[in-house]
């Protein structure tokens, strides 16, 4: 029974990522003709992630009170409607899509809560790690579908390419609405949310400054939680290059077109799937997770910096992305597994929602930073990303040191 629900959740995640990644290769078409197009792409990303500061904690709280299934439904419908806004292909459509999709994008806080709901403790790292592999697989299939569609229909006009890809995204997001409506609940007998609690949740969601205070309160109940959240915040800032990459490879020295970007993400996603499945399926729960995070981050710092000096060499780009998949790309699932162990049935959605809000804040901030740096030089943002990964290594080292001190005391 649990296995069936787990597979159903994985299917929803997979389609959601495919829908998001399928439009990645054509996003430059929405900003072409505008001054500083990389800045407009960054602004769209910042808008999408910034709105989650408000929506994610509220949706997480609601999933604890009313169950995971209603949030899955709301998020899938929100994505479908947001994708419809991408027609016609122009800058205003992209910005409207980013704002609309961000409002209901509480899906991943709810996903992690649902997986944790039905996962035995011994399978928690594996199941959350497989979630990461599924996301990577979606990054393969999305660009592959875009490239296949463009090739099969022999589309040569960039705007026409974007229009057809968006229509495909709308169709797939509609399918995900159906899958979400058939999902069985993973959080049985939720206690509901009183009118007073709901009002407080809305007020808190509208006041971003309360997020850290609420996390401190949760940290008093689950010691070590806040440090894990801050570590994930730093990691989110570091992997902000995912959102910058399309602009970098299309507008920078590499000058990659839609098909080139599709093939690159196919390789990136395919390799990530294979490595993530092997790592989380056989190793993640048998190692010291905090120490692994430290070494992955430390080795990953020069790897991230190397993207900025790849020049016009696509061979070196593929070499760097291969090392990427073997190092810091594996950190996310380890942090999520450690964090899931510090939740309970009554506050799981709220904690993951607060965490997603903090990730949204980090993504918003890092997007503004790399957007401004890219105006000076398209290579500069990778120095910022590498520095943020250094913070990940430092934080997890401090956490491990504190844990050893507590045991000694």
Automatic annotation (TrEMBL):
Alphabetic keyword roster: Membrane, Transmembrane, Transmembrane helix, Transport
Domain Major facilitator superfamily (MFS) profile: residue ranges: 5-401
Subcellular location: Membrane
Membrane topology: Multi-pass membrane protein
Any one GO cellular component localisation term in the record: membrane
Residue ranges of the TM segments: 6-27, 39-59, 128-150, 162-183, 224-244, 264-283, 292-310, 316-339, 351-372, 378-396
UniProt-listed SUPFAM superfamilies: MFS general substrate transporter (SSF103473)
GO MF entries: transmembrane transporter activity
Family: Belongs to the major facilitator superfamily. TCR/Tet family.
Protein role: Resistance to tetracycline by an active tetracycline efflux. This is an energy-dependent process that decreases the accumulation of the antibiotic in whole cells. This protein functions as a metal-tetracycline/H(+) antiporter.
PANTHER family (UniProt xref): MAJOR FACILITATOR SUPERFAMILY (MFS) PROFILE DOMAIN-CONTAINING PROTEIN, MAJOR FACILITATOR SUPERFAMILY DOMAIN-CONTAINING PROTEIN 10
Protein name: MFS transporter
Species whose genome carries this gene: Fibrella rubiginis
Taxon lineage: Bacteria, Pseudomonadati, Bacteroidota, Cytophagia, Cytophagales
């Amino acid at each position: 029974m649990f296995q069936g629900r787990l597979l159903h959740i994985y299917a929803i995640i997979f389609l959601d990522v495919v829908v998001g990644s399928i439009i990645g290769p054509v996003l430059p078409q929405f900003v072409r003709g505008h001054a500083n197009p990389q800045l407009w792409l960054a602004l769209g990303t910042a808008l999408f992630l910034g709105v989650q500061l408000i929506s994610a904690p509220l949706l997480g709280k609601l999933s604890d009170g009313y169950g995971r299934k209603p949030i899955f439904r709301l998020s899938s419908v929100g994505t479908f409607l947001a994708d419809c806004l991408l027609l016609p292909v122009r800058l205003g459509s992209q910005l409207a899509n980013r704002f609309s999709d961000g409002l209901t994008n509480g899906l991943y806080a709810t996903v992690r809560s649902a997986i944790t709901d039905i996962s035995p403790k011994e399978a928690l790292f594996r199941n959350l790690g497989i979630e990461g592999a599924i996301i990577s697989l979606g990054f393969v299939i999305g660009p592959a579908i875009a490239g296949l569609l463009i090739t099969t229909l022999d589309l040569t006009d960039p705007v026409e390419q974007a229009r057809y890809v968006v229509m495909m995204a709308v169709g797939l997001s509609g399918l995900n609405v159906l899958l979400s409506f058939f999902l069985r609940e993973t959080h049985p007998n939720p206690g509901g949310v009183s009118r007073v609690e709901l009002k407080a949740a809305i007020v808190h969601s509208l006041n971003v400054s309360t997020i850290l205070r609420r996390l401190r309160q949760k940290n008093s109940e689950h010691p070590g939680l806040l440090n894990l959240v801050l570590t994930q915040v730093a990691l989110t800032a570091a992997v902000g290059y995912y959102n910058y990459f399309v602009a970098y490879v299309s507008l920078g020295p590499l000058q990659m077109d839609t098909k080139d970007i599709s093939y690159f993400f196919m390789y990136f996603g395919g390799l990530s799937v294979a490595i993530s499945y092997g790592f989380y399926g056989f190793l993640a729960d048998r190692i010291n997770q905090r120490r692994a995070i430290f070494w992955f981050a430390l080795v990953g710092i020069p790897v991230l910096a190397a993207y900025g000096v790849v020049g016009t060499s696509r061979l070196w780009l593929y070499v760097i992305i291969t090392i990427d998949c073997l190092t810091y790309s594996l950190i996310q699932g380890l942090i999520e597994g450690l964090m899931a162990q510090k939740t309970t049935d009554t506050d799981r959605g709220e904690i993951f929602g607060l965490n997603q809000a903090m990730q949204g804040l980090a993504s918003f901030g890092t997007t503004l930073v790399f957007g401004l740096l890219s105006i000076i030089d398209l290579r500069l943002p990778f120095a910022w990303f590498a520095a943020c990964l250094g913070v990940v290594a430092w934080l997890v080292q401090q956490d491990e040191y504190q844990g050893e001190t507590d045991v000694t005391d």
